[in-house]
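Researcher: I'd like a candidate sequence for this fold, 171 residues long. If you have to choose between options at a position, lean toward the conservative one.
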């Protein structure tokens, strides 16, 4: 039944406008910089983003963060995605155990996934940023929906589909 609902939804004008808008954002990004990397999580939003971007540019680089908190199915799933999309996905791993660090700092699972703390910085953000530099990429595509957080909604209202980089510019 859900497949029928989604199929019907895909014929609607709102859906078509959203897809057209997403492709416009992708094209705008490729006009800003030549070298991009997709930060791929393996989730539905990220997979849709990967599909759309690789349909525009097959040579775009892809990276994903993996650690000892991941579901056991993540790596086999990503291997299948690499095969399906014909792309190489660069695995990025922190040089320490996320589980052990969480236990040491008394963080529960929800805290690991949802709160901003040094574990996020050193286990996720910094390894991905190091891989972006290693791949010599100027920009990062991230599959984020503005509806998922108040900060994203505020950023979208102020700057549209762009995020600020260290230089202070918005892209």
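Model: Candidate sequence:
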């Amino acid at each position: 039944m859900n497949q029928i609902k989604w199929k019907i939804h895909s014929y609607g004008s709102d859906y078509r406008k959203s897809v057209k808008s997403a492709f416009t954002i992708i094209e705008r990004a490729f006009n800003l910089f030549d070298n991009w990397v997709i930060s791929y999580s393996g989730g539905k939003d990220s997979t849709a983003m990967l599909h759309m971007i690789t349909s525009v540019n097959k040579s775009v680089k892809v990276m994903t963060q993996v650690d000892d908190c991941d579901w056991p199915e993540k790596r086999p799933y990503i291997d299948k995605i690499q095969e399906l999309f014909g792309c190489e996905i660069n695995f990025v791993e922190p040089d320490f155990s996320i589980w052990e660090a969480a236990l040491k700092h008394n963080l529960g699972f929800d805290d690991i996934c949802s709160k901003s703390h040094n574990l996020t910085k050193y286990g996720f953000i910094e390894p991905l940023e190091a891989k972006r530099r290693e791949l010599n990429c100027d920009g990062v595509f991230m599959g984020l929906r503005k509806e998922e957080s108040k900060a994203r909604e505020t950023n979208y209202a102020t700057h549209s589909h762009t995020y600020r980089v260290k230089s202070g510019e918005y892209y």
